Amino acid sequence: MGGTFDPIHHGHLVAASEAAALLDLDEVVFVPTGQPYRKDDRRVSEAEHRYLMTVIATASNPSFTVSRVDVDRDGPTYTYDTLVDLDAQRPDDDLFFITGADALAQILSWKDAEKLFDLAHFVGVTRPGHALSDAGLPEDRVTLLNVPAMAISSTDCRQRTRSGQPVWYLVPDGVVQYIGKYDLYKEQ
Ligand code: ATP
Ligand code: MG
């Protein structure tokens, strides 16, 4: 499961857990993106912070792990490169790329889109506010799943932190404390 994870929240964790259970996956590898200068016109937290929050959030689940492939690669993150690197590290594994309805809708515009489906099976999960549609996606390489609706976004968590509202129970406890410890999300 790839993401910016700035910060990781319970929407990500529920989606991963549901996909793993429904598709009988052995492991979910969370892959925080490398460092974009900006995303949606805002500054993204340092990759190391996003990586560590992802480690904290997933530490208690024996089938959740975190990969540094994107954090350690220079330049913008393309899912194609992520999958090539993971495939090289795990040549015997079948890869499934878990993604939310909003991201799935953009897949066809991603770099090397047609080659993505050779590298992994794509799993699109429901996300409140975004329609889950497989229009234009190869049927045998994409599975759509309904997961319990969690109307949580990282954007909302950042805005809440900035305006002094709590993020308790939207993100794992250790992530609440990590955000406070490093004073993340104070500025736009
Ligand atoms: P931002 O608001 O900064 O874009 P985000 O909440 O969308 O953050 P990302 O790191 O961009 O989080 O998302 C990583 C992946 O998780 C994407 O594929 C996204 O669609 C999916 N995702 C994020 N939030 C949810 C949610 N509440 N339910 C299901 N999927 C989600
Ligand atoms: Mg997003």
From TrEMBL:
It is an enzyme of class 2 (transferase). Pathway: Cofactor biosynthesis; NAD(+) biosynthesis; deamido-NAD(+) from nicotinate D-ribonucleotide: step 1/1. GO terms for molecular function: nicotinate-nucleotide adenylyltransferase activity. This is Probable nicotinate-nucleotide adenylyltransferase. The lineage of its organism: Bacteria, Bacillati, Actinomycetota, Actinomycetes, Micrococcales. Catalyzes the reversible adenylation of nicotinate mononucleotide (NaMN) to nicotinic acid adenine dinucleotide (NaAD). Its EC number is 2.7.7.18. The gene is nadD. It holds the Pfam family CTP_transf_like. It catalyses: nicotinate beta-D-ribonucleotide + ATP + H(+) = deamido-NAD(+) + diphosphate. Residues 1-160 form the Cytidyltransferase-like domain. Keywords: ATP-binding, NAD, Nucleotide-binding, Nucleotidyltransferase, Pyridine nucleotide biosynthesis, Transferase. SUPFAM superfamilies: Nucleotidylyl transferase. Belongs to the NadD family.
